[in-house]
Design goal:
Length: 279
């Protein structure tokens, strides 16, 4: 889909909703000014990442480490026992999982050329962005673009998850983590251009895969005068991720909202982690 040129301007970033995740630093709502920039309409796809690897010979973090995190429900019933994350046992350490083998060595990306590349670390994403003569978007740029001009809406199309009884994003439907009813049409990732784009022309800003941003993660924000082109703190331990993923569900991770945010260490990789680029 290429890059979308955006004019920039002022917008209201974050959320003051007291019912959300206070430790995530969504609030306070603050006025932010964004300079003109361009952002990709979609997350980077498997085919795009494959072209990058073919051109550069790049080896991803997951390939170097020979493992990544895979959702347990995507593993075969006879898959050997693997280590999990305490408190989030649905995440399994799978040796051989990487961008070419999203669920481990038994899997491949055949027929998923137009799905988002996953199992990419922040370093992988940043290297790709540089190769494409771009960069990763800042968190503020990402949220400005994802809102598509809507003011303080929860989602790219408004505040209600369903419109006319239909889903408009790829998230978990059913009971997490045991039963995904696939009411939105997908189990796992969907194509990067699935569903209707927002009013700026961006696809899948809610759900599908988390997207890396350039910023170090912080929960300290100000609601003072207009903030121009914030870039986050100068150092930290985690990088910002935005947008939620196909594993988000209201019961435990209602983070597919536009103001929602999370953090991962820059070397972390998983089956629901991707990115888009900015210029």
């Amino acid at each position: 889909m290429g890059l979308i040129d955006l004019p920039g301007g002022n917008f209201w970033m974050g959320s003051n909703d007291p019912g959300r995740y206070l430790n995530d630093g969504e609030g306070p709502v603050r006025e932010v000014k964004i300079s003109p920039f361009a952002i990709s309409a979609t997350a980077v796809s498997n085919s795009e990442f494959a072209a990058f690897v073919e051109d550069t010979g790049y080896v991803t973090t997951a390939e170097k480490e020979n493992w990544s995190f895979v959702f347990a429900g995507d593993l075969p019933n006879d898959f050997s026992n693997t280590r999990g994350i305490v408190g989030a046992e649905w995440w399994r350490q799978v040796h051989g999982a990487d961008w070419r083998h999203p669920e481990g060595q038994h899997s491949e990306i055949t027929n998923r050329d137009n799905h988002p590349v996953v199992h990419v670390s922040w370093f992988d994403a940043a290297y790709y962005a540089t190769w494409s003569k771009g960069r990763l978007p800042t968190e503020a740029e990402w949220e400005y673009a994802a809102r598509g001009g809507l003011i303080q809406s929860a989602l790219p199309w408004g505040n209600d998850l369903l419109l006319d009884g239909k889903h408009h994003c790829n998230i978990w439907t059913g009971t997490f983590p045991t039963n995904n009813t696939a009411e939105d049409g997908w189990v796992g990732t969907c194509p990067v251009d699935a569903f209707k784009p927002n009013d700026f022309g961006l696809f899948n800003c809610s759900g599908n895969v988390w997207e890396w941003c350039a910023d170090w993660f912080t929960t300290q924000h100000t609601d003072g005068p207009v903030i121009a082109d914030p870039i986050g703190p100068s150092f930290g331990t985690d990088r910002v991720v935005k947008g939620g993923s196909f594993l988000c569900h209201d019961s435990y991770c209602h983070r597919y909202r536009l103001a929602a945010r999370s953090a991962n260490t820059p070397e972390s990789t998983s089956a629901n982690q991707g990115f888009r680029i900015a210029h």
